[in-house]
Amino acid sequence: MVEMRVAGIALDAASRSPIVLLRDPSGRRQVPIWIDQAQAQNIMAGLSEQPPPRPLSHDLMAQLLEAGGLTLERVIIHAIEDSTFRAVLKLSHGEGEALELDARPSDAIALALRTGSGIWMLEEVVADASIPVDAEADAEDDADFRRFLDQVSPAELVRQISRARSDASAEEPDDGAGEEPSEPAGDDTPG
User: Please, are residues 158 and 36 in contact by the beta-carbon 8 Å criterion?
Assistant: First the structure.
């Protein structure tokens, strides 16, 4: 298994869908996971150093784990089935029993960020889904991303994404066929 870290959130150039980027320790491989806007906001809130004024869903989940005496030991993204990533939460209760719960990778990542737990991925999944990384360009992107996070609120991000989708829709010719958008199907799908 490979311990991954969240490198950031990006937007797919074609579909304008958010993508969470997980990077391996060497910094040379990155796994993109397509998510929706709400999931992107939850992950961005977990990356933020400022706590929200009121607990968000994943903050509440972390508090419930603590209140129940459970510890999130790690998140494991263990498979890709039908173009969808699969993950489990590895929980422990004191020194006794260990629990394993099925979870969407986006929820698992958001919870791991709030609890300081590791995000692990099976090597086979990294090998199948990773893309090579340009470390120099990514260092610049990381600095830009941090500045962006410091300056944008989740509401502003939603407005920008909505505006971009509206602009893209206005540019497409309407043939009256009612064609569905060509976004990745489902949640947490690989590229």
Answer: no
Residues 117 and 1 sit within 8 Å (Cβ to Cβ):
no
Helix (H) or strand (E) holding 89: strand 84-93
Report pTM: 0.69
Concatenating the DSSP letter of every residue in 8-55 gives EEEE-TTT--EEEEEE-TTSSEEEEEE--HHHHHHHHHHH-SSPPSS-
Question: Chain-centre distance of CA 150, in angstroms?
Answer: 18
Q: In the chain, where does DSSP find H-type helix?
A: 37-47, 57-67, 105-115, 123-129, 135-151, 154-171
pLDDT tens digits, one per residue of 3-47: 999 999 999 888 889 999 999 988 889 999 999 999 999 999 888
At residue 188, the pLDDT reads 65
Question: Mean pLDDT, to the nearest integer, of 161-180?
Answer: 64
Rounded CA gap, 183 and 1, in Å? 30
DSSP category for residue 177: S
Q: Which domains does the chain have, with CATH numbers?
A: 2-168+185-190 (3.10.690.10)
Q: Each residue of 116-129: pLDDT tens digit? A: 999 999 999 999 99
Distance (Å, rounded) from C-alpha 42 to C-alpha 33?
A: 14
